[in-house]
Amino acid sequence: MLQHIPHASLLQRPELNQGKASTTQRPFNFAGLFFKIQDESYPLPDLLSVSTNPFSSSFECLVSLSVTYSTRITKNPQTASVLREPLCRILALIDGLVGRLVAPIKVSWKPSVWLEALLSTFDEVRRIFKSLP
Length: 133
Prior knowledge:
By secondary structure, this protein is mainly α. The chain has helices spanning 27-34, 54-75, 80-99, 111-131. It has a domain at 53-133.
């Protein structure tokens, strides 16, 4: 789906034909308004910041997800066989998203925390595979 989204649209929110959207509105709430979803039963993700930029929101959510998966694999190695594939797909999405970036952009993240989580996970997965017969 990402390959069908124009690069420029990742740098700003789409305009709404109806309804008022605040520039400080969380991406989840904006998406509900944009797609006319009124159901409030969906859980809201716990994000560190509010971004009006779709690229930043996507990147920050994917980084947060990758750290969550990495932490779960490291803390509970028995889950590695199940969580490894989704983590790989998240990392592929991050790679694809960043590969489409055509201009500098400000994102809110802690590269050292992200890298430490991933390296710990890679080390744990390596240990698991070494122990296999």
